Amino acid sequence: MNSYQVAVIGAGVVGSLVARELTKYDLSVALIEAREDVATGSTAANSSIVHGGFDPEPGTLKASLNVKGTAMMPALAAELGVSYRNNGSLVIAFSAEEMETVRALYARGRTNGVPADSLSVLGQAELRKLEPNVSDDAVGALRCASAGIVCPYGLAIAAAGNAADNGASLYLSAPVTAIAKRDGKFLVTAGPHMIQADYLVNCAGLYADRVARLIGDDSFTLRPRKGEYLLFDKSEGELTGHTMFQVPTTAGKGVLVTPTVDGNLLIGPTSVFSDDREDKSTSADGLAFVRETAGKSVKGLNFRQVITSFSGLRAVPDGEEKDFIIRFSERDGHFLHCAGIESPGLSASPAIAVYVADLLRDAGLPMRPNPRFDPCRRSDHWFRRLSAAEKNEVIRKDPRYGRVVCRCETVTEGEIVEAIHRAPQATTLDALKRRLRSGMGRCQGGFCTPLLVELLAKETGKAPTELCKGAPGSLLLAGTLKKGAEQA
Amino acid sequence: MKTEIAIIGAGPAGLAAAVAAYDAGVKDLLLLERDAAPGGILQQCIHNGFGLHRYGEELTGPEYAARDVAEVRKRNIPILTETMVLSVAPDRTVTAMNRQNGIFTVEAKAIVLAMGCRERPRGALNIPGDRPSGIYTAGTAQRFVNIQGVLPGKEIVILGSGDIGLIMARRMTLEGAHVHAVCELMPYSGGLNRNIVQCLRDFDIPLLLSHTVSRVHGNGRLTGVSVAEVDENRRVKPETERYIPCDTLLLSCGLLPENELSKGAGVPLDPVTGGASVNERRETAIPGVFACGNVLHVHDLVDFVSEEAHLAGESAAKWVLSGAAGHAERSIPVRAGGKVRYTVPQRIDSPETPVRLFFRVGSVADNAVLTVKSGQTVLAAKKKRRMTPGEMESFELSPAVLCAAFDAGEPLTVSVN
């Protein structure tokens, strides 16, 4: 049985960053993930916004960790080679009353510690100059210059990979189904593995309450809240420069219109409670609502250029809990919850990781710096970021980088093979997509899917008929062709 | 690298354009192909029915392509395979990439765009529901079955009655799969009549017109689809919704010309065809840049692709041999009217040679009357019993008609009523 000082349960963006943070210290760390890949839950499908921090209630963890996390994000993204853009955000007001809310948000931002030079209240003329495609009905806006956009699953994948590079053990397809305590240590049943740990950090996202129940802790319950989105072709990616919010309501920050780090345009989300934690369905009504509401913010949304729609679930605490739940369990002082990380969880995630490490230190975990810690990980996108001359140098050494497999996103065989073998290893089509964007372009995998299946089969040694799109059971093929004389 | 004519794509269009350009006198040509072998999508179209017009016989796709490839080889025209063209500049510099050469440029005097088309994916169709595996475009399924020898699924529903969908209904049935239905959003099929007969009726596969897939179900693999009738505005009638258990949904909902390279080169596109706007020689609005085949407008028969590519290749050669002469002094626009959705070419630069106009109607026209007008004057007319959106129509304009049009100096309008 493998034994660790800390085991982190759940490899979404929070769990992955927590595991990476812990490898900065001389600790043995395990990162345990139920699914076949990291970043498949809330991390895989959200608005991908690095919020300024003017929205959360002052005094909450959400407020402090958001402001800190957003400040940390540019350097972290650079270390991990993750796509990040400091594009700024706008909260658009459509009436004098909403302008009042905008001013209130400005004041709240200052209270929360958002830098003064980052916040400004814009009138109609300034707003139009900044964003020519803003709706004619917009009367003004709150601008937050420190806000940005980041690739959320890219961040989690890189963090998990960097944690593994720095010595953490990554367990995939290892759902935690039982936690026992023996001789002061946790015994975790995770799929086929038995894992021993001194401390557990519960970063299980949508399932964090169920993981808590495994030690008899029912102090909180999560309820998934669904958000549906529409993604546009890159031809529409420059419709807005800023991320555009509407004035927030109790249901959340409303429908936004934003460029993505990859150059697409994203609109959404809806905000509807769901009882199914695996429900990733979209609905005709939800998508119609998104289209209509987003259309209020900007002019010129070209719905003929929509390339896909998707939905994601946020892990929202039910009942009284309004803040992130980051605290030791009352049942066990070595069991740390990191739960209910809904928006602004992505923005806060770098600061959550540090906060969790601090809590563990305070609880008595010995934390000496790890002298071998390397904060940097080569980006999954390293090849595409090279100049033509540099690419040619790579292709000369390894011609697989000269063969384009996904034509819409220009993904080469070399990049795909690397993603299949490098931690965290990609074993499914969706895992490749999250790392390299293969199949994410305008043809949505029409041409490259058969080629990716061939490469995955070759590199993993599996038969094509064993390969999955993503989740267990999502087999890509039903069998091989019936054979004639050869078989008979 | 330098060449007289760079041809992007070695499918049926690129191959025929290369042969025609060579035979018209330009020997220094280069074909750039992203796939491992020339032939384009024909390589996976192992059914027959190709070549009736061009050769007077029924060939399979690979056989049809092999004839063009043989002609190209006979002329020693080089084909760079597994070579992805990354961009085309307005000055006709092509940037491409492959294993042997890395990233390299080709300076060409003329370019023939022959990149073909792609299928409309699920996302663009906005079908609500889960995100399981088992949803493929018909062409992807065709590649799986015919090239890779694997079966994408066993219980099939097909959305869209485009030709590839119809062909795949038959193909999957022959491989032992069960095709429950083909749903078509429109009240008519988008495919060729002969395919409806040979691929659906002969196998008792129901074609549900004015039907769509209203929702997909399944968290791992697809477990079923909801199918419903639509009203005249193509909106789902909820009371007609029913569930069909299946493990595979194939999409055959239209083809989109792949013009990302053309856009990058600044070639103006026709918003209806999604392809370049061209003159009768298939020259785009950028001098020396020609387009043909499915990248220009989606064809239903490869024979007409070859014919069009021959014209484009020959035109490119003439353009090079004439010293890259500029644009025509006078040009007559051709406009679509009545039930006609589009025409190719979209403009005519010279009245001296006959011009064959290709067009499609936007809805079924019975006892159709086609008229070609210059302003209010009818220059030519033709009757046809039935025209459907699934079949491309053509009409030849004689030099006499063209001269009259050029004398009048007004746009030509082609309409069907």
Walk me through the structure.
The complex is a heterodimer of chains A (about 500) and B (about 425). Chain A folds into 3 domains: about 1-80 and about 150-220 and about 320-380, FAD/NAD(P)-binding domain, CATH 3.50.50.60; about 85-150 and about 225-315, D-Amino Acid Oxidase, subunit A, domain 2 (D-Amino Acid Oxidase, Chain A, domain 2, 2-Layer Sandwich); about 390-465, Arc Repressor Mutant, subunit A (Orthogonal Bundle), CATH 1.10.10. Helix content of chain A is about 30%, strand content about 25%. Chain A contains 12 helices and 23 strands. Chain A has helices at about 15-20, 60-80, 95-110, 125-130, 150-165, 210-215, 285-295, 345-360, 390-395, 415-420, 430-435, 450-460; strands at about 1-10, 30, 50, 85, 90-95, 120-125, 140-145, 150, 170, 175-180, 185-190, 195-200, 220-230, 245, 255-260, 265-270, 270-275, 305-315, 325-330, 335-340, 405, 410, 480. In chain A, strands 1, 2, 9, 10, 11, 12, 19 and 20 form an 8-stranded mixed β-sheet that branches. The longest helix of chain A is centred in the N-terminal third of the chain and has 20 residues, at about 60-80. Chain B is of the alpha/beta class and about 425 residues long. Chain B folds into 3 domains: about 1-120 and about 255-325, FAD/NAD(P)-binding domain, CATH 3.50.50; about 120-255, FAD/NAD(P)-binding domain, CATH 3.50.50.60; about 335-415, Immunoglobulin-like, CATH 2.60.40. Chain B has helices at about 10-25, 50-55, 60-75, 120-125, 140-145, 165-175, 195-200, 260-265, 300-320, 400-410; strands spanning about 1-10, 30, 50, 60, 80, 85-90, 95-100, 100-115, 115-120, 135, 150, 155-160, 180-185, 205-210, 210-215, 225-230, 240-245, 250, 255, 290, 330-340, 340-345, 345-350, 355-360, 365-375, 375-385, 395, 410-415. In chain B, strands 1, 2, 5, 6, 7, 8 and 20 form a 7-stranded mixed β-sheet that branches. In chain B, helix 1 (about 10-25) runs parallel beside helix 9, helix 5 (about 140-145) packs parallel to helix 6 and helix 6 runs parallel beside helix 7. The mean pLDDT of chain B is about 95. Chains A and B meet through helix 7, strand 18, helix 9, helix 12 and strand 23 of A and helix 4, helix 5 and strand 11 of B. Strand 23 of chain A pairs antiparallel with strand 11 of chain B.
